[in-house]
């Protein structure tokens, strides 16, 4: 693995967390491919760390669903399956219904101003957008909902699946590059539902919103499990 493939590590946080963040970003950004063997020795040399932080990071990434640890064979980047998509979609739907029902009565002016700033970025996109940028804007919008839902456990669950949602959204945007057509309009519709301050309207809005991405992912030729 060449040195220019891996970004340099900052030093202000625990090394294991830093390595986890770097590898997670590389997986979600498609720098590593599904099924690719992640060799501890090569990763340690590339990141200029010992194998201890690499093992710690790979264990964390397995918990998040990004990596599969196979006995006596090592770590491999997880392959997206129909089961993965269905499980993450249903879990996301459950927690985000709760999140929007709480956030819609708590956001007020500041929260909606933050949403509007992201919407303006979405609206200003007038050329072909790469999947990574589409995913970044999408998640920035949804992060605001979780930030204002005032529910620490829901936020922790979201953080635990956010990386997998990133992978799914990237696959969705890479295979169905329609962000220019639906990115702004669909998120604006959800924002308007939240602005009603009605938990049921917010839940109906999020159900409709995330169903589109799920339906597109189901059309991909993925293994069952």
From TrEMBL:
Which GO molecular-function terms appear in the entry? Answer: DNA binding; DNA-binding transcription factor activity
InterPro entries from the UniProt entry: GntR_C, TF_FadR/GntR_C, Tscrpt_reg_HTH_GntR, WH-like_DNA-bd_sf, WH_DNA-bd_sf
- What Pfam families does UniProt report for this protein, alphabetically? FCD, GntR
Q: Does the keyword Transcription regulation apply?
A: yes
Entry's transmembrane regions: none
What keyword terms does UniProt attach to this protein?
Answer: DNA-binding, Transcription, Transcription regulation
Q: SMART domains in the record, alphabetically?
A: FCD (SM00895), HTH_GNTR (SM00345)
- Species of origin: Kribbella capetownensis
Q: Which residues are in the HTH gntR-type domain?
A: 13-80
Q: What is this protein called?
A: GntR family transcriptional regulator
Look up keyword Transcription and say if it applies. yes
């Amino acid at each position: 693995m060449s040195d220019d493939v891996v970004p340099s590590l900052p030093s202000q946080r625990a090394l294991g967390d830093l390595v986890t963040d770097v590898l997670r970003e590389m997986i979600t950004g498609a720098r590593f491919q599904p099924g690719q063997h992640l060799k501890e020795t090569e990763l340690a040399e590339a990141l200029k760390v010992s194998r201890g932080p690499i093992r710690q990071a790979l264990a964390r990434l397995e918990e998040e669903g990004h990596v599969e640890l196979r006995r006596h064979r090592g770590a491999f980047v997880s392959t997206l399956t129909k089961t993965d998509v269905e499980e993450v979609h249903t879990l996301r739907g459950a927690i985000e219904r709760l999140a929007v029902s709480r956030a819609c009565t708590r956001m007020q002016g500041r929260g909606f101003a933050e949403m509007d700033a992201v919407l303006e970025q979405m609206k200003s996109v007038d050329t072909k957008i790469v999947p990574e940028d589409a995913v970044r804007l999408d998640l920035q919008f949804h992060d605001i909902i979780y930030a204002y839902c005032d529910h620490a456990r829901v936020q922790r669950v979201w953080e635990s699946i956010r990386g997998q949602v990133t992978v799914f959204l990237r696959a969705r945007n890479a295979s169905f590059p329609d962000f220019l057509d639906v990115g702004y309009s669909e998120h604006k519709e959800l924002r308007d539902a939240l602005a009603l301050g009605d938990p049921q309207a917010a839940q109906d809005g999020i159900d409709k919103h995330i169903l589109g991405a799920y339906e597109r992912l189901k059309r991909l030729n993925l293994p069952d499990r």
